[in-house]
Design goal:
Elements (H helix, E strand, L loop, with lengths): L22 H11 L4 H12 L3 E4 L4 H13 L4 E5 L6 H14 L4 E3 L3 H11 L8 H20 L4 E3 L16 E4 L5 E4 L7 H10 L59
Helix pairs in contact: 2-3, 3-7, 5-6
Bound molecules: iron/sulfur cluster.
Iron/sulfur cluster (SF4) binds next to helix 6.
């Protein structure tokens, strides 16, 4: 197993005893970790944050690689996902494949019924097609609020975001301070990976992956809000395709210049 002697130097801790970073400390760590392997970054995070580190997964290709790296380093690594209630069957299938592959006890967070029920009662089941405001209301109840609960008490979360996924992610650092979630640390161990790197790792490790990737879905979210893309189209062109690009934000990755990701 890779080891990296990069414990966080004398940074204050929060109520739970988890290290907090200032913006300049995060920037400095990002520089130091820029050339590190994803595995080394995860080792550093596991040593620094212990059980306060959570790994986010929406079961896209990058997430399968991230889960494989994390769960091989620590079979008890905490992995969470958001079940919006509108995910494609293929995503539920790959969730179960992950449980079988790694024996992971997924932390699944679903929308609160007391928020969801009035929303669909008042605005309908498929409100997202009616207006950007309705779509964002749905994303808030089904994704954003459950994510807040998933990260409650966490000191750091790891994502499968990559710089190559979108222009808005071209400057994605390895280490960020996530002010949208209480100033915890956000780690992007695959930031420097290319799409080819991801698929090479999937093939080499024979990892399970979402069957929709083989049917023209490079980015997979909720079933009614995701469609296949044509060759040459942007990888995120199939997400909320009826909206203009500037509104395509679900609120999961905000305040850090990274845009949004599948969930
Ligand atoms: S992606 Fe679509 S279905 Fe999913 S939470 Fe957002 S608006 Fe609702």
């Amino acid at each position: 197993m890779a080891t990296l002697n990069m414990t966080t130097p004398d940074v204050p801790t929060d109520r739970e005893g988890s290290p907090r970073l200032t913006l300049s400390e995060a920037a400095s760590l990002s520089e130091r970790l820029a050339a590190a392997e994803a595995e080394e970054i995860l080792v550093w995070a596991m040593e620094t944050f212990g059980r306060h580190l959570v790994v986010a997964s929406s079961f896209g290709a990058e997430d399968m690689v991230l889960m494989d790296l994390a769960l091989r380093l620590d079979p008890l690594a905490r992995v969470f996902t958001i079940d919006t209630g509108r995910l494609p069957e293929e995503t539920y299938a790959v969730m179960d494949a992950a449980r079988e592959r790694w024996g992971v006890a997924l932390e699944v967070h679903a929308p609160r019924p007391e928020a969801l029920e009035p929303l669909v009662r008042e605005r309908g089941m498929n409100l997202f097609y009616r207006s950007v405001a309705d779509r964002k209301a749905c994303c808030h109840v089904r994704k954003v609020e459950p994510l807040q609960r998933a990260l409650a008490g966490a000191g750091a979360w790891a994502t499968g975001l990559r710089r190559g996924q979108a222009v808005t992610r071209s400057a994605l650092p390895v280490v960020q301070v996530d002010y949208a979630h209480g100033g915890i640390v956000k780690l992007n161990p695959l930031a420097a990976w290319s799409e080819e790197d991801v698929w090479r790792a999937i093939r080499e490790r024979d990892l399970p992956y979402n069957a929709l990737h083989d049917r023209g879905f490079p980015s997979i979210g909720c079933a009614p809000c995701t469609r296949a893309v044509q060759p040459g189209e942007d990888v995120r062109a199939g997400r909320w395709w009826w909206e203009t690009p500037e509104t395509k934000e679900c609120g999961l990755h905000v305040g850090d210049g990274t845009g949004s990701t599948a969930a």
